[in-house]
Design a protein that fits this description.
Blueprint lengths: L3 H9 L13 H14 L3 H11 L1
Length: about 55
């Protein structure tokens, strides 16, 4: 859990915190993220990926 000041600092660096109702392992979340990116990322992420590749 981080406070609003810390959240603002990391958001300004382009890192967006995610709030969960329960504790989830980082390995589990990274696995889900990798699967999503490899299969069908949402449109806003596709734009970011395409922009970085250009």
């Amino acid at each position: 859990n981080i406070g609003p000041t810390a959240a603002a600092k990391i958001i300004n660096k382009g890192i967006f915190p995610i709030k969960y109702k329960e504790v989830v392992s980082i390995e589990e979340e990274l696995s889900k993220l990798q699967a999503m990116l490899g299969e069908n990322p949402p449109p806003f992420i596709k734009k970011i990926i395409e922009k970085k590749a250009a």
